[in-house]
Specification:
- The structure is a homodimer.
- With about 550 residues, chain A is an alpha/beta fold.
- In chain A, the strands form five sheets. In chain A, strands 17, 18, 19, 20, 21, 22, 23, 24, 25 and 29 form a ten-stranded mixed β-sheet that branches.
- Chain A starts with a strand and ends with a strand.
- The interface between A and B is medium-sized, with 31 and 31 residues.
């Protein structure tokens, strides 16, 4: 196949009219020609850090939309499904990904389970890491989020890191707010990337110490505007929802980057040659021998996608997508029985007391770290009662791997007036997390999630909406549009219930992630991330 | 150990006063301090493409000087000794290198023998390549100089390339003047670097096609001035003689680069972080966990070396070098008997003729490519006689691996008036090459080289000088100063004999290299590189 257009070279920062000869999925030859063309051919975009599960779509369903937007490769960490189903889950992702034309490169989940502070569904062992990293389609050791283990020279995490070093594969980092001596120790272990930075100061420190910085511009965390002038190395989405995906992917981010003043060649490097070099992916620039992953765009401001070629096959052209996904379903992973409302009651230590002062997780919109606060709540019939007026609601984590743990605590920021929401997407162990105004509603939504084999649910005094995610409780087998539509309905419904958060379920999904500061809930209790210990919900009762 | 100074960061382009904590040979921590310092601490320099043998020094003897000049790592291709002694030679290099504090990283010689157009001493097989590339100290497949084999899809070279790909190690290139479709095919094979470019146009084409460009600034080929504004990737020396080494190494090149207008941070990147990234070397920037390879310099114009730390050990300080080399000798590799003068006669086909028109290798000073010309020479007593007046001298290649081949031809440019020179350093097979005004002198110098177990020799009607290179006929066990002094004496002597070349022996050493255009001599005959075939010396006789 021969294609023609204005070829953009991300190495030499040139655009020149040319013809590309494609053979057996690779670029065979490039020839400069003397013609005028309207379109620009750029290397296919690479999202170099994404958890596909967070889109609530399977890889093939994700591909169905992402490739229309010029994404031709992703480096994906199947960390979420690994936490639910271990190697079997990772193999589901590989197999489903293979049915799609998009190039899926995987990283081997380094921290499954993430910590011992919660119950998850499976363990990825040192041997599993060796098996995965020996594969050609596994390009790195996934983000080492359990930085405490690195700081403590834990033998298991060090063994995993050493396997990656031995196999010449890079090691991704995840150390939000880590600084000073601790950060230096973390980097010393051989960890080379960071996508969790949230300030220019953090970027500066980490860059200076040799880390490559990923600008995260995902559904929740959006750092592009802040870091646009920081000379970072990659742009990634990390977590990217179907709702956002249907509007675009890397193309939208490039448009925003240029709009914010970034040179378009510089912006393109962050999603082409830079990740290709770092992860040893045979793409990222238009050069002989590289995968023929090519995208026709209209110009360097709008980045409108005219045509997409992946591995030499035209997969999107004239607004027509030449691929349809058909992902397989799997057996349920919800190993938990229906819960009575009483399971969500939070008993006072002393039922005689009138009130309890409690630790409260303090939600911040659009960032995955939480604050912490305290609240004084009434005790009625021996139970500590949430204060809808003060937006102190109940939050519970229902373990779903057969152990029957349940933890009940308090949270501020969800703003529900009368109802509850629940989700089996709850990083990283993906137990069922629910926030509500009373135990009855919380039991209802939790049981709905269970009966759907996983998913999201919301209920109020007026209505109930749910989204089934039967694949590991994380993903739908439906299309992005279908998932996004239901998800958007759920969002609107929850906002109507009084929730001021932009993305209530995304925010909810991070409330149980005990590796991100500062106060989180797990099925085992209330976890003080900053001090690395469980703390009591109740401070004192009066 | 703690060291202090103005720390130069090649990633962030900053200089800030700081303290570096070194532990177990690695950088443990870096701390910014509030003090004034005179010196700048920079990452140790990396020469990312060098054949140590070309210095005529062993690795340990090379290190003895290079580290005084701030070189802390080299990526070296033991291609020369491999051509003489195969794996045994490579192991000599590894073992000798280990006795020195400098970090020697090796590449696995991909083309030994280089071609079938000459006789060499050994073969590096596909299995050898696998054995070498599986080692941690082997960081790449060496320059694939036999580009014709790549263009012909030769199964052996492709197997070697595939081993490198499988082991995630880069593949170095060597394709001087290769352009267009042939170049694209060469790159398509997965070859990623080029150090042979000799014009900005060549650089531009190769960069555009995805190659990383090494600016070669060696003893013979000096491209820095030409390429100083070309945004290349590395600076290397490739072939660097003891005579030059005693004056400096990368430090001198940095000084020149800055003097030519290159930004000092940009210049430093080419010899620190860039090669470290490409060859996966744990150095190249001052960051936690990296090898503590650190150099104190006075400023960013002079690059005077004040102190050198390698793997955490101070090895040079206050003009004192804290290391002395003591390389081992090995058995002779000269498997050839002494030659009579008559062996160097070039017989006419028809002794009745008066003259012969012959093909002549046309030497150009300071580049390793040759031109070609013809000359009409007298026939006397059945022999074709060189013309000293017209500077058409005889050139012979004496095979030294037990096969007794000898080839006699003609060369222009050496300018000798009365005498001969010979060398067992003759890329890439390292047979004995000699240029002279008559057969008697040529036999004398050749036999001197043989009796020295290899080396260089020159003789005239007035005097004789020689340099023994008993290690594979390539290297001395003596110090750089000793080798350089004798080498310089030889040079001056040969210049006094009428030779106008700046480096007669270096130029001589490339006359038998049949992978560099355009006309070369080997023990098997006169090789037309451009047309990939042997041609006759004699065009016609009259």
């Amino acid at each position: 196949m021969y294609i023609k257009g204005n070829i953009l070279n991300v190495i030499t920062d040139e655009i020149y009219p040319g013809e590309i000869h494609i053979e057996k999925g690779k670029i065979r030859e490039i020839r400069e020609v003397n013609k005028d063309f309207n379109n620009i051919i750029v290397p296919g975009f690479i999202d170099s850090h994404i958890h596909i599960e967070s889109s609530m779509l399977t890889p093939s369903r994700f591909a169905e939309i992402a490739l229309k937007h010029g994404t031709t490769s992703v480096v994906t960490d199947p960390h979420e499904i690994a936490n639910v189903m271990g190697m079997e889950g990772i193999k589901y992702m590989i197999d489903d990904a293979k049915t799609a034309p998009l190039n899926f490169y995987f990283t081997a989940p380094s921290c499954v389970p993430t910590t011992t502070h919660e119950t998850n569904g499976a363990k990825i062992t040192i041997d599993d890491i060796e098996e995965l990293l020996s594969r050609d389609d596994f390009v790195a050791l996934s983000e080492v989020m359990d930085y405490e283990s690195v700081l403590n020279n834990d033998s298991e995490i060090m063994a995993k890191i050493n396997i990656a070093k031995k196999l010449n594969k890079p090691i991704d980092g995840h150390a939000p707010l880590l600084t000073g001596k601790k950060l230096q120790k973390y980097i010393r272990a051989g960890i080379t990337t960071e996508h969790e930075a949230t300030s220019r100061r953090e970027v500066a420190e980490k860059k200076r110490l040799g880390m490559k910085i990923m600008i995260r511009e995902g559904s929740e965390s959006k750092m592009l505007e802040e870091f646009v002038r920081e000379k970072c190395d990659f742009i990634v989405t990390d977590d990217f929802k179907a709702d956002d995906l249907i509007k675009g992917h890397i193309d939208v981010i490039l448009r925003k980057a240029v709009d914010l003043g970034m040179d378009p060649f510089d912006a393109l490097k962050l999603v082409t040659i830079n990740p290709a070099e770092h992860y040893n992916i045979n793409a990222g620039c238009i050069a002989p021998g590289r995968n023929a992953d090519l995208v026709f765009i209209d110009n360097l401001e709008d980045f409108n996608i005219k045509r997409v070629i992946i591995n030499g096959n035209t997969i999107f052209k004239k607004q027509k997508l030449l691929y349809r996904a058909n992902p397989k379903l799997i057996d349920t992973t919800m190993n938990v029985s229906f819960k009575p409302a009483s399971a969500f009651d939070l008993k006072a230590n002393n039922p005689e007391c009138k009130s309890a002062t409690v630790n409260v997780v303090d939600v911040m919109d659009n960032v995955i770290v939480t604050g912490r606060t305290t609240a004084k709540l009434n005790i009625e019939h021996g139970n500590i009662i949430p204060s809808v007026y003060n937006d102190i609601l109940k939050v519970s984590v229902v373990e779903r791997y057969g152990g029957n743990n349940i933890f009940n605590g308090f949270i501020r920021g969800f703003g529900l007036k009368n109802g509850a929401i629940a989700s089996s997407v709850a990083h990283d162990s993906h137990n069922i997390i629910t926030v509500g105004t009373n135990s009855k509603y919380m039991a209802d939504v939790t049981n709905k999630v269970i009966s759907n084999n996983g998913g999201l649910a919301a209920t109020s005094n007026r209505d109930s909406i749910n989204l089934a995610l039967p694949i590991a409780g994380l993903m739908s087998n439906k299309s992005a549009l279908s998932v996004a539509t239901t998800s958007q309905k759920l969002n609107d419904f929850v906002n109507d219930m009084g929730c001021p958060l932009v993305n209530p379920f995304s925010t909810l999904s991070f409330m149980a992630l005990p590796v991100v500061p500062s106060l989180k809930v797990t099925d085992k209790g209330l976890f003080d991330v900053d001090n690395d210990k469980m703390i009591d919900v109740i401070l004192h009762e009066d």
